[in-house]
Amino acid sequence: MINSRIYLFIIILLVLGRPVEGWSQSKDSSDGRFGNYFLFNMNTTEKQHMVRQPVYFPISDTAIYQIFERINDRNAASLTATSPASAIILGVKLNPSLKHYFSATVGSISKEYYSFLIQDSSEAILVAMGINSSNYKDFRYHVVQNDSVELVPWSPVTDLRKDYGAKEPFALIGKFNHPGKWIVVEVYNVKDYRTREGVVFDWRTDLKPKLEQIIAEVPGNYFNILHPSVNRQYATRFNKITGAPDDMRLPADSIRNLIFQFKKSGTLLSAAYLISKTDKTTDTSKLGLIDNHGYFTLDGDQIREAGKYEIIFQRQTLKASWEEDQLLRIPFEVIATPSNSAIAKKLLISILITIIALLISFWIYRRTMRKHLKKMELQKEMATLKLNSIKSQLNPHFIFNALSSIQNLMNKQAIPEANHYLNKFALLTRSTLESSAQDMISLEQEWAIADNYLRMEQLRFGFHYDLQMDGTLNSSLIEVPPLLLQPLIENAVKHGIAAKKEGTIFVSAKPSGKDLVLYITDNGKGFDANMDQTGFGIRLSKERLELLNTIYADKPFSMQILSDNNGTIVTITLKNWL
């Protein structure tokens, strides 16, 4: 840990409430200024408590010889067993008006050197009262700047003076001034390296601790809050100058410790303060010091209550100065973790809301589907009524054409033919009337109706016809709407081959993947399929197919007519029928 014995010295002076016995003190030093003194690092025991402590003795810069009297004083009322930190007896003199000049101690193997802050860029004077004309050849000193550049290599001590009211010559190690930087001055005895002493002078003005990491220790894990990729969204915005988080938010029960890591600063001693604003209290407390490795640990128990917090790091002084430009402020918020009962309550509310939302959605869906189904049923009923109407028109049309054919035979005095035709007509009429009352009949029945009709019309017109059923089709199991072929065959006979001597009609049924395809082909005179003046049977068949598509939307019907002077091909496709 960083040695804070320097503050024990200040405490001793406060306890004494006055200068060390027999020493004069100017008015300047009483208000915190350095004063017209040299400070010497001594070890002494305060008689009242018999605790040995390091103490800096102030010696007037006009009577510097008094340091030896203080060391040898056996009659001091408050202190006893006074001895210098080393036989070198280094003394420091700074600007008499300088304030806040004490800083941390800096370790050097087995020794510790005190450091002084000189923020007004004034000069620092270092003397060695233990080096004199009889031993100066045994000592060497060097000066290192910023722990990286050796300004003065190990050199002999040669400047002996008799200034500042000295009675005998002493060594002036040097007068130093390096604004914005810091130096270490070390002196040692070449005959005994254990006899060494040093001091640090620091002219830097930016004393704000330099943050490097904030390590969050959580149950079973740890991570750097300054890295958004791993910090669990504990912070998302960071100060561009200090790198500290601006919006740190911590779950109350998740943090075991927060470890703040700073750039190591051997010459500064920095303290941490915590400002807390919770429902229970508002408080500011000093937490401790950043250690000599640059770490400070904030115990999670100190931030367990939900609320607003701010941790402040600043250079340690006898009294907190709160100079804003020298403070590192890190505000954060601790968020209360819901209790198990609260979590259960929220979960129950969420479940209830979800169930209610699902019930409402199901009710809306069901209502919509009912409306849709009702609409579909109405459309289907209307389509069925229209379909039945068309079928009712097909039967009279067929019967009218058949009676007309019988009348023609009788007018020609073809009585046997008329009787035979009438017999066929009676059989065909029975089968068509029976099938038209059904929504579906087998393809086998449809095929039989087509065959009977062609036989009957063949007696009248003497044409040739052929019906071919693909062998892969099971006609007894495949159902089709009744009288799908008859009106189209009738149109082929009446408008296609009636006036042709060598008329031919070809009817076939074939599969095409999952589709059923029906063909009616004739070699008649043909017609313009795009004209409205097509036969009554074709027009009714088109209307019927459109209505069937309304009822069987997933199995649509289509009809294609190709016609020219060489004949006509009518193709009916029943999609997804097989």
Automatic annotation (TrEMBL):
Q: List, alphabetically, the InterPro entries matched.
A: Bact_2-comp_sensor_kinase, HATPase_C_sf, HATPase_dom, Sig_transdc_His_kin_internal
A Gene Ontology molecular function term for this protein is: kinase activity
Keyword annotations of the record: Kinase, Membrane, Transferase, Transmembrane, Transmembrane helix
**Ranges where the Histidine kinase/HSP90-like ATPase domain occurs:** 480-578
Transmembrane segment boundaries = 347-365
Matching Pfam families, A to Z?
A: HATPase_c, His_kinase
Question: Mind telling me what this protein is named?
Answer: Histidine kinase
